[in-house]
Amino acid sequence: MERMAAYHYLIELWADSDMGNNITIGSLSELANDTPMPGSGSTSKRQSIKLDKIGPRGGRGGGVRDVQVPPYRLLRLEIHSKYTINGISFSYIGSDGSVHHESWGGGGKYVPYTGRDGIVFEEYPIQLGLTDYVKEISGTTGAYTDHPNIVRSLKVVTFKRTYGPYGATDGAGSPFSFPVQGSARITGFFGRSGDYLDSIGVYIREC
Q1: Measured between alpha carbons, how far is 199 from 50 in angstroms, rounded to an integer?
Q2: 58-109+117-206: which CATH topology?
Q3: pTM higher than 0.70 for the full model?
Q4: Which InterPro entries does the record match to this protein (predicted)?
Q5: Distances in Å between the alpha carbon of 109 and those of 78, 104, 123, 154, 161?
Q6: Phi and psi of 7, rounded to 5°?
Q7: Residue 84: φ, ψ to 5°
Q8: Tens digit of pLDDT for each residue in 50-77?
Q9: How far is CA 35 from its chain centroid?
Q10: In the chain, beta strands by DSSP E
Q11: How many degrees, rounded to 5, is the angle at CA 134 between CA 122 and CA 26?
Q12: What's the alpha-carbon Rg for the chain, to the nearest Å?
C-alpha cells in the first residue's frame, strides 16, 4: 500500500496548482492543521471524524469494494468510461493521516483502455484543488450487455464546477443522486465492481 504524509501531499498540490498564487503558506498551514497527521496516536478532535455512509446504488454483481481506512479528504477521482461506467480510481487522505489509493472495475492501467467487450474506454481525471471538494455525485443505473444492473453514468459536482456526465448519456436507466448539504462533503466511496462498476455509495463528512 502506497502511503504519503498528508502534509507533504498538500505542499506538492499547492506548488503544482494554478491557485498557488492565491494561497498563502498560512492558509496552507490551516488546511494541514485540519488534516490528521500520520503516526499520531492522538485521540484529538481531528482524528475523531464523523462519517455518514449513504448507498449504494446499482446491482449486486462483482465483489464488495470499500476504503482501507475512514476517508477524511478526497484528493483525486478518475472515471473510466465510454458507453457505461467501466470503473473508478480515487485517492484520499485517511483518518490515519496517510494518502490511500483505490481502483475498482476495469481501466485504470493506461489510456485508452480496451474493456472485456473490446470497447475502448477513456479515463477522465478530476484533481481537487486545496479549496475544492465534492458536494454531489449523481448518475444512472441499468442493464448493459449481459449485466442486468450496473452504474451506467456518473456526474460529479464540486464546489467550483461540474464534471460529466460520463458514460451513457442517452438518459436511459434509473437516476440516483447523493447530494450534501451545507459545508458537508463527499470524502470517499464504496460499492461493488467486477468488469464494470456495479454499484456505488459515498462517505459524507460533516464539517
Answers
A1: 23
A2: Vitelline Membrane Outer Layer Protein I, subunit A (2.100.10)
A3: yes
A4: Jacalin-like_lectin_dom, Jacalin-like_lectin_dom_plant, Jacalin-like_lectin_dom_sf
A5: 12, 11, 10, 20, 26
A6: -65, -45
A7: -155, -175
A8: 899 999 999 999 999 999 999 999 999 9
A9: 17
A10: 51-58, 63-65, 71-81, 85-94, 99-105, 113-114, 120-127, 134-144, 147-158, 162-167, 174-179, 185-193, 197-205
A11: 115
A12: 17
